[in-house]
Amino acid sequence: MNDDELITMVREQRTKVPMTVPVEQVISRGRAVRARRQLPGLAAVLAVAAAAVVAVTALLPGHQGRHQPGTNPGIELAAWTVVRHTDGTVDVTIRQLSDPAGLQRKLRADGVPASVIFGDTPNAQPNRCQSYGHPELLQRVITPSTAPGQPRGIAIVMTIHPSALPSNAGVQIITSQARVGVHLVAASQACTGS
């Protein structure tokens, strides 16, 4: 039996089998099964891409504060991180109250007029800022991920919306007696650098 004879025999057999499922339904089911089989591969590709983005971001200079040694001498954790997003918002995470000048420089470089004072140390700078006087604006400017005034040892996470800041106002992050406070201050060269 050659190929042509086999094809003819299959065609003759096919006409004798009743088909109760529409062809469109068979085709759509086949596509759905193939799509499900491709999902694990697609998920793996996305995971690798996400890991690459995180690795590249971690290697970029200027995105982290001074590092503090962890318990493992080969691992260091960032005291704070600042990430500016394409929508203009700025995420700030403070894990340790160190290098306030570096955090202040980074915030200003990312478009946030800022004053950062970490107190409770003999070399804490004096507060040269005046309150802005409109506390209701704070909720539009800063979205906290942890409640203000959290004790040390807990990461402070917030999103700053620079576009919501009035032109004559800035943000101050200040510590006092192991508490972190965030409020609006009047912008000035001495306070927020603007």
Description:
By secondary structure, the protein is of the alpha+beta class. The protein has 2 domains: 3-58; 78-186, no CATH class. 34% of the residues lie in helices and 23% in strands. It contains 4 helices and 9 strands, in the order ααββββαβαββββ. It has helices at residues 3-16, 23-59, 100-109, 138-141, and strands at residues 67-69, 76-78, 80-84, 90-94, 114-117, 142-144, 156-160, 169-176, 179-186. The strands form 3 sheets. A 4-stranded antiparallel β-sheet has the order 3-4-7-6. β8 (169-176) and β9 form a beta hairpin. The longest helix is centred in the first third of the chain and has 37 residues, at 23-59. It is rod-shaped. The N and C termini lie far apart (90 Å).
User: Which sheet architecture does the biggest sheet show?
Assistant: 4 strands, antiparallel
Q: What ranges have pLDDT less than 50 throughout 5 or more consecutive residues? A: 61-76
* Secondary-structure element order, N to C: HHEEEEHEHEEEE
Helix content: 25-40%
The total beta strand count reads 9
Estimate the global geometry from the Cα principal axes.
rod-shaped
Task: Report strand %.
Answer: 15-25%
Report the C-alpha radius of gyration, rounded.
30 Å
Total of domains: 2
Number of helical runs? 4
Question: Spatial order of the strands in the main sheet?
Answer: 3-4-7-6
Terminal Cα span: 90 Å
Q: Which structural class do the helices and strands define?
A: alpha+beta
Mean pLDDT: 75
Structure characteristics:
rod-shaped, 194 residues, four-stranded antiparallel sheet, 2 domains, three-stranded mixed sheet, alpha+beta
